[in-house]
Amino acid sequence: MNLRSVFSLFSSDLAIDLGTANTLVYAKGKGIVVNEPSIVALNKNTGDVEAVGREAKEMLGRTPGSIVAIRPMKDGVIADFKVTERMLNYFIQKAHGRKMLVHPRIIIGVPSEITQVEKRAVIDSAYHAKASEVYLVEQAMVAAIGAGLPITEPAGNMVVDIGGGTTDVAVISLSGIVYSRSVRVAGNVMDDAIVQYMKRKYNLLIGETTAEKVKMAVGSAFPLDKPLSIEIKGRNLVEGIPKTIVVDDTEIREALAECVATIMNAIRVALERTPPELSADISDRGIVLTGGGALLKNLDKRIRQETGLPVSIAEDPLASVVLGTGKMLTEFKLLRRIAIE
Q: What's the pLDDT tens digit per position in 284-305?
């Protein structure tokens, strides 16, 4: 066994998009190897991990008393340190597919307005999950790289990354962030808005998994060409029994109106704060949407209508962050420029 093959055995570097809703892992030379919900099911009595990821998501809102399904990430940052560590460990092991002693270099995307304490928590979690080196990069920046924007050029690129916990809006030029802002209104808040709306309007209590399904099926930010409707099952709060009702896209649009308005506002503020030369570039190139929220029906139309700018959606919006982070595994020079201290 020559030295090179020994070395390739250990070139186990990973790029991780540690998201509020989903965690994706990109392995050098392999591409995306893990794409699962950021959820851990724990046994309360023993403290053991019962399930992680997709399996744990199916348990959300359906667990007996002894098992709890936890989302350890909240608003793009770590809310539960111990559980995040176990989740990271699980995904890293899964990415390597072998239980060898690997000490990978890990690059992780984080929201732009993350505090020092929150940064520390992410770094410590990665080190506890056996990383040899840890780099942090801003999600909006790597999302732009993942979406294929020419970020190294001296021209303005505007990216809006709508995830599960945060929406990051950034203007990027010459591999640096000219303006960035992170608002904690994104996919999860939208789900919650649907839950509240159903409660208010129909006295119907639904779970977060159902709310997410409704959002994906009929949620929109701007009137649709042809109307959509969906059956929603939940519990009637007055009679206390299971009930099914049908709602259409206009109602869900009303439920999401406030969330969408917050995102629109963040975009408007970003455009106001952009230096004029870069504004000129953005009016040519437009705005690129990434993240799961970019899939909200007609959101691009709504932004186009309110800003008058061209709007495009990244090719694989859910994977933009992890693909951009993955590129950093080979482009070390660029990584050094954009890594957060």
A: 999 999 999 999 999 999 999 9
